[in-house]
Every structure is written in structure tokens, then in C-alpha cells.
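Following up on my earlier thread - several people asked me to post the actual chain instead of describing it. Fair enough. Here it is, all 396 residues.
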Amino acid sequence: TFPDGTLINNIISDTVYVSSLIASTGCDSIVTTNLTINSTILSQETVSVCSGGSYTFPDGSTQNNITVQVVYNSNLTTTLGCDSIIETTVSINPTYNIQETVSICSGGSYTFPDGTTQTNIIAQVIYTSNLTTNLGCDSIIETTVNVNPIPTVTVTSGGVVCIGSAINFTPTSGGTWTSSNPAVAVIDNSGLVTGVSIGTANMIFTDAATGCPSNPADGLVIVGGVTASITATPTSGFMPLDVVFNNGSTTGVTYTWDFGDGTATSNQFELNHTYTNLGNYLATLIVSDGLCYDTASVTIEVIGQSTILIPNVFTPNGDGSNDVFTVDGENLESVEAEIFNRWGQKMYEWKHVKGYWDGRTQSGLEAPDGTYFYIISAKGFDGEEYFKKGGFSLIR
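Reply from S.P.:
Thanks for posting it. Predicted structure:
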């Protein structure tokens, strides 16, 4: 309202107004009014809070537990007395509350999302990690750690196996077996362990359902073994035969010799032995390390000097005495004989050591009394060869 009483509404720009008045003296009074416009302020702002948080607006009003977007107007006054309206949009940044479940093997370790590590876990653990998102809001992760049991391993024979032998482990199904040292012991998935070389190895069973391996110490295998080896000098000869037995075995704990001739055994490492009877003998050495054993053998052939004896008469009369013509002797390897009558006719022949003539013709008839002739070839085990010709009498 200007001095002359004029009212102008909705003034939005600067205005110059002249009021014509009459002074109290009766003279004209002209008032020029320069009207300057002060602006009002209308502004917008956007802010963020974490879900469930609070915010104080420019007019001092505070809202708590904000979980959805809020648009709020603050009605203020400028220093020049004009309106200042601030529209505030409050956006919500999410917070997180996450639950997770993991599994480990009994006695294992786990590192939680906040970096904390727990070791030797043998029972279920529930742990809360209090974290902050990159927008500054809470991120709470509740981790449940379940514990799977370690498989139980059992073994027969105390875990001791000899080279080339086998022992049984359990379980026999539901997972996979491995050997920590396949050069010492190998194992198949049925739990059968075979010793390969001397040493130690751990048999580990991994449960297919949980992925948990057994305790290696539970599956410890000790593989023992010795190797028996002997040489004999000589291995054949005339009786009495003195043989030197040499022991080429790996180091053992005990050594047992069996000479095969019925004499007493011996526990010496190396030794001599004398064979006093003819025959073939299997000499055996048994070597043991206290857990495992091995054997080695060698054949000894004891021979005597050969002899040959040819009779000059025989009496095939069926009295059980001197009824056949044969070659007697010692240590003969082969005998071949031909029998002829006085006219040179062959009566009989044989080609083996036990052969003989019973006094009959090849047709089975009894040969008459008289003189007959032989040609005999023989060979002894000692290498001696014999060739004999002569005559003998047949007397009934």
C-alpha cells in the first residue's frame, strides 16, 4: 500500500510509484516510492539414510525409524523476511541381515566374513560378523558352522604288513582310499593294503558324503621284509660231499638252515655242511626280521663212484634165487644190454638200468641150458663209461 493509499497486489518486479498528496499547508506533496522485490526461495535436496535410521530436516523436525522414502517440506523465512521452502527427499540405503551355513571337518578352522578365524572347531559354532556396506549401513552376517565327523579307520594285524603280503582296512565303502607313499604300500577302495617295499605309509580314507579325510596317524602302515639269498659250492660231487653255504641275504634278525638230509638245523650266518649219503637234497635258508620272513633254496646232488658187476651164471628155475641175468652196480646212470646164443642169434635186449633177462626167447619159450653171450654198454653218474663183452651160463 503506497502513501496515497493505493494497494497493489502480486508485485513480482521492482516498481516505481508516485503518490500525489496535499501537504498540511495546502501545497502539493509528491512522494516517489521505489519498491524493490526480495525473492522467496524454493529449493529441493535429496539425502540418504540407512533403513531404520533417523533424519533431522532443515526446520529442525526429526523423523526416526525411516524405512521408506520420505518427501518433506521445511517452511522457513529468509533474513529479508521472505519464504524459504526446502523440499527434502530422504532415500533409503539398505541394511543387510544375512544368515549362512557352512560345514567343516572336525578339528578344522574357519575364517568368518569379518576376518576372525577360529581353529580346532569340534562342535557347532554360531558367529555374527558386524560389517558396514560401502554406503555406511550395517551388514550383519550370522554364520552357522556345522561340524562333520572325521572317519574312523581300523586295521587288522596292528598295521604291519610284509612285502608282497596284504592286510585289511575298514571302512570298505562310502569313500576313497589313498596312500601317502604308494612306493611303500598301495591300497584299493575295498580297503586292502599291499606292501610294496620296506618303509612306512599312511592310509587315508576320504568320506564321499562329507569330504572329510581320516586322521593319517590312524592309518599308519609299517612294511617289513627281508630277502633270502644263498649260494652253494659245490652243488654236486662225490660223497662225502663238503659244501660251503654262502649267505647273500639282506640283514635279518634270525637265520635258519635246513640241509634237507635230516641232520640238525643251524642258526649261523654262513657255514659248511658235509653230506655223507647219496641223493639229492634241498638245502633251505629261512631269514626273518622278526616281522616278516623269506626263504631261498638250492639243490645239492651227492653222487658215489660207479661200479659194474656182470654175473657169469644164472639159474632161471623159479626158486626166487638168481632167476634173472642182470647188470649189478653202483651209481649207474644208464645200461644197454644185448643177449646172444652161441650161433649169434639175439635172444633179448634192454635199455635201462633195471633191465634183465629171464631166460626166455623173444617168443616166450624157455631157452635151453648152455652158454650165452652179452654185449653191455653202461655209464655211471660219475661220468665213467663201460663197454663189456663176455659169456655166461644158463643152468636150470
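The two ends are 188 Å apart (CA to CA). That should answer part of your original question.
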